[in-house]
Specification:
The protein has 97 residues and is an all-alpha fold. The chain is 71% helix and 0% strand. It has a domain at 60-97. The chain has helices spanning 4-13, 34-84, 86-93.
């Protein structure tokens, strides 16, 4: 229940317009500033460029690593094939006099 004072206050305000669902001017959010949007787009563009560059560097390093691994694999294959040769086996089996 409303007290006498509250009722008196409401009556003194006079008739209130019925609520129509309209938004009053002071309730409208301010227009978004295009400058802020442009700045954030620039920022994210820089971040994306930086990440792309880092990713490219990582890919280049990975490619170089793969080339090294392939070279090592080739060298090992050559050494293994040497060990399979009969005279090479004999060389390692029989120590020099």
């Amino acid at each position: 229940r409303k007290s006498q004072d509250e009722i008196a206050k409401i009556l003194l305000q006079g008739p209130q317009p019925p609520f129509t669902g309209d938004v009053f001017e002071d309730e409208i959010p301010p227009e978004p500033q295009p400058q802020a949007a442009i700045q954030s787009i620039d920022f994210f563009s820089q971040v994306i460029d930086q990440l792309t560059a880092e990713h490219q560097t990582a890919l280049t390093a990975k490619d170089a690593h793969i080339v090294t691994l392939e070279k090592n694999q080739d060298r090992l294959q050559r050494e293994i094939s040497w060990f399979r040769l009969p005279w090479y086996k004999k060389l390692f089996r029989d120590p020099p006099e």
